[in-house]
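fyi for ur records
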Amino acid sequence: MTSVRIEAPARLHFGMLDAVGGGTRRFGGLGVAVRRPATVVEASTSDELTVEGPDAARALVVAEGCREALGLAGGARIRVLEAIPAHVGLGSGTKLALAVAAAVAALTGQTPEPLAIARAAGRGGRSAVGLWTFVLGGLVVEGGVRSGVEQAAPLLVRHAMPDDWYCVLAIPSAEPGLSGPAEEQAFARLRPDPTRAALIAQLVLTSLLPGLVDRDLTEFGAALTRVQRLVGEAFAPVQGGTFHPRAGPLVDALLRLGAAGAGQSSWGPAVYGVVSGEAAGRALVGGMETELAGRGRVELVRFDNRGARVEIG
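which gave:
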């Protein structure tokens, strides 16, 4: 093998089941893959390890770590052709790291298991939604991490999204969501709320997932919206409100303009709304363009049920 191309879809993070937790596991969560934006990485054999393109410095660190973690020899020329916008809530760092790790491994004919890829990429320490949407696409629910165990959370549920459900994705011009040390400090300030965590889990198991399986967008959307607000309330003390300051009014606008369900992805400020059919999606895009008034961007995107695409040359 002399070259490999990997396209990894962005992910929407719908929230954590229990952000604090006092039991065996912590976090857990759910989310879904969307086709755009995406991270696109090309890699070819080379005597040296080099990286170019958007986020090249971060990709190089990942590539060096992967060679050591996977016991790979030789070099590679890595080109980042497309990158998901950073720190807006779409999983840019995770998808870049996983794509680079998978590409480096593929050049030597290796296809590590998902958990091994996550370890090599240095991802999955808190949330595994990015990992499982990278591997499988669709909507995923993961079970949280064990205290003291350095392994990505297990996959509990993966279900394809209906072909006639569309996502309206809006990214306002705003301060980025939390990341790095600021994110670590934010999690350290959270306090347990077993009642809220139990209600989130109940909604996911008894309404959101059944609505998806039955292709009932009304039930799914209502449950998703409620889950997002409950998750937002858990994080309100560290993000200044139920949602990112810029995202809150946009979530309200998505629902007012016809979305069956809406929320904020991860720390935001990206927000999304789910609708049935392309026509409804385009109408919602038009309404949100008015809401944004040029201060951001909005587009209609499809859900992704395949996960990362790998092309070998």
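The mean pLDDT is 94. thats all i got for now
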